[in-house]
Backbone:
């Protein structure tokens, strides 16, 4: 669908501001990643920061590939599990519509990710609430006996936190869509002898697929670039790309800013790449 | 449509407002060699002091002792700006430089060696003042621990506030003072006799306490601290691998088996207070005193040091070169060094709890000497005994070692293999 001139005109004010503010910052970010650091008088452009990252040189570079892998693992696992969970939950809830369900899902959205992360930490850490109850009940003797659920090497704590936030979000997205469709499709399918699995696979899934895919893309893009949850619930090593980027950017040595910016841009390009890929695939199939 | 237009106008007026120059810029001229002219210029100014604001006790101390005095004696208003992390105002100053802002928001800032290095590198520090203020005569500028900050030459760009020394904290209700480890070698043994009960802060940017802890081990293993005052590649190549071996030798005995480490002092205090580990650390001359008052560690907490290689240093205040109220900032930096306030800052009940920034032997007034001595005699029972502190005190290594230690530790100890 091509937007009409009227729509474009209406969007113009927002677009102008976005282009100026975002465009200028983006250009400046690209310049910094290329070593244009006026604060220390560096004005020569070069690809050293990217080279360092790709060849694993320097403080940030040494961990770049591991961080990239870790970021991909956490983001993909969180996104896929959230999508599956949301699909399941939405199908379930769609059978018994009630305001309470919607409220329960909305309620969770009001919490910022950071608050949710702190909540998980207070609940699940080795000195958290659960550990203390377990200690009081005599199930464990010392805090160290409690299993490591958050701040673990594999990012399970981070993934778990995102699941708690993203499953309700995606469920809402799917539910909204399902509730605007008439129940007719499902009835017809049922009348024609489709069982529950067939109804899900042949009716519900095709209906919600586009919305679920864009929702999942949003979730992935968010998680891949987000800082606060991995900073709070991550371990010293491996670290997610966002954490590595900020550390390089705030390194006392200002030269490290180029690497910090380069990592941020790589994050942005990966998200962009995946978005374009998903859109292209969608258009072919749709 | 009308609403959109209003919205656009609103946005643009906000943008313009943000770009407009400050109207309350100080135009007062002064001559640093004539202190009276500084006082005159500072009269009526507001000094915006950016500092780490995470401790209510320190905030209260600053407002009560400096804020009230500045107003009464010099008609200067103190605006203490609490910030979560000193990197934040360093970045603010750097952004101001990039944007060409000449009347910056920051007049005075409390900085550590890392921030100092960054701002010196960016040439954003007001020069040639620290030894020109009257009370700088009380500062021992010949002491390498003062004229270098994290090993980086100070060069008259910042003025000391207080001193600190690396110490450990233990809980006297849990442990007996006789069973404490007194060297890095002891510590490794202790850690493996008590698996999971020790950890330290991960060395890295923004976690200098961890870096300092590792440097202490480097000193002990090489048998001398002073030789690290200058960079020596041969020395580093000889002792760095031994230091990593040392840390790896008891890594599996650490909390979480060395898989992860606390990232700052507060995380370590938390683990200690929750009885997950048996030691925390502090830099304060009152030891655990200030932390006990804030309820961060148990009341039975006490500080102690190893027999040697406990790095001590000074912390400083600096003025950005684009500060709007430099005269008032100078008056405040001078006030900080006044023996009266130097005595007040070490007393645990006042909430600050760091050591002297001045050399007390340079104070000539007998009343002031009495106040300072009295303060030292009342550090509280949570402090490390003064003779232990003095015996173990060593200076920091040259500044390039900071990054070398941090990178090396990450590569060979944290990541390993």
Residues:
């Amino acid at each position: 669908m091509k937007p009409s001139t009227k729509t474009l005109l209406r969007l113009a004010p927002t677009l102008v501001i976005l282009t100026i503010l975002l465009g200028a910052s983006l250009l400046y970010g690209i310049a910094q990643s290329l070593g244009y650091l006026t604060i220390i008088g560096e004005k020569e452009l070069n690809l050293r920061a990217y080279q360092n990252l790709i060849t694993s040189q320097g403080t940030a570079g040494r961990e770049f590939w591991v961080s990239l892998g870790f970021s991909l693992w956490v983001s993909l696992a969180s996104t896929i599990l959230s999508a599956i969970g949301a699909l399941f939950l939405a199908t379930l809830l769609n059978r018994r519509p009630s305001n309470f369900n919607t409220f329960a899902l909305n309620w969770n959205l009001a919490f910022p990710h950071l608050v949710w992360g702190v909540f998980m930490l207070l609940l699940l850490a080795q000195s958290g609430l659960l550990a203390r109850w377990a200690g009081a009940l005599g199930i464990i003797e010392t805090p160290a006996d409690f299993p490591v659920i958050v701040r673990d090497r594999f990012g399970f704590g981070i993934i778990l936190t995102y699941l708690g936030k993203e499953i309700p979000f995606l469920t809402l997205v799917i539910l909204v869509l399902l509730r605007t469709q008439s129940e007719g499709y499902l009835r017809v399918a049922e009348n024609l002898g489709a069982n529950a699995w067939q109804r899900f696979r042949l009716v519900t899934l095709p209906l919600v697929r586009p919305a679920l895919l864009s929702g999942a893309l949003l979730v992935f893009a968010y998680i891949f670039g987000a800082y606060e949850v991995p900073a709070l619930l991550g371990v010293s090593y491996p670290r997610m790309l966002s954490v590595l980027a900020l550390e390089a950017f705030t390194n006392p040595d200002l030269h490290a800013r180029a690497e910090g910016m380069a990592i941020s841009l790589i994050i942005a390009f990966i998200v962009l790449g995946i978005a374009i890929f998903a859109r292209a695939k969608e258009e072919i199939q749709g | 449509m009308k609403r959109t237009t209003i919205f656009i106008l609103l946005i643009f007026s906000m943008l313009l407002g943000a770009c407009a120059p400050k109207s309350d810029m100080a135009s007062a001229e002064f001559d640093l060699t004539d202190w009276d002219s500084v006082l005159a210029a500072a009269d009526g100014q507001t000094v915006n002091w950016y500092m780490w604001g995470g401790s209510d006790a320190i905030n209260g101390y600053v407002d009560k002792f400096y804020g009230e005095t500045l107003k009464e004696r010099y008609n200067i208003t103190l605006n203490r700006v609490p910030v979560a992390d000193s990197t934040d105002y360093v970045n603010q100053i750097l952004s101001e430089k990039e944007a060409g802002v000449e009347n910056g928001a920051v007049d005075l800032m409390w900085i550590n060696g890392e921030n100092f290095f960054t701002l010196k590198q960016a040439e954003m520090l007001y020069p040639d003042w620290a030894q020109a203020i009257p009370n700088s005569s009380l500062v021992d500028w010949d002491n390498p621990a003062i004229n270098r900050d994290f090993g980086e030459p100070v060069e008259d760009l910042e003025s000391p506030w207080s001193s600190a020394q690396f110490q450990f904290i233990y809980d006297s209700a849990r442990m007996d003072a006789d069973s404490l480890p007194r060297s890095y070698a002891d510590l490794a043994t202790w850690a493996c006799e008590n698996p999971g009960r020790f950890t330290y802060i991960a060395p890295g940017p923004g976690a200098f306490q961890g870096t300092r802890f590792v440097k202490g081990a480097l000193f002990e293993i090489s048998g001398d601290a002073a030789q690290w005052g200058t960079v020596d590649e041969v020395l580093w190549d000889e002792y760095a691998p031994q230091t990593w071996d040392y840390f790896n030798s008891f890594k599996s005995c650490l909390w979480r088996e060395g898989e992860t480490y606390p990232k700052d002092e507060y995380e370590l205090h938390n683990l200690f207070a929750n009885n997950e580990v048996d030691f925390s650390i502090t830099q304060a001359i009152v030891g655990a005193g200030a932390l006990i008052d804030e309820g961060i560690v148990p009341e039975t907490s006490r500080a102690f040091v190893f027999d040697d290689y406990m790095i001590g240093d000074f912390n400083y205040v600096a003025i950005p070169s684009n500060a709007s109220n430099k005269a008032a900032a100078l008056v405040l930096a001078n006030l900080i060094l006044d023996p009266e306030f130097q005595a007040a800052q070490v007393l645990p009940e006042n909430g600050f709890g760091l050591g002297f920034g001045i050399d007390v032997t340079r104070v000539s007034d007998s009343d002031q000497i009495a106040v300072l001595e009295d303060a030292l005699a009342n550090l509280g029972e949570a402090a490390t005994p003064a003779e232990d502190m003095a015996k173990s005190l060593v200076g920091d290594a040259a500044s390039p070692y900071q990054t070398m230690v941090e990178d090396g530790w990450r590569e060979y100890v944290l990541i390993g293999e």
Remarks:
- The radius of gyration of chain B is 23 Å.
- Residues 16-27 of chain B have pLDDT under 50 and may be disordered.
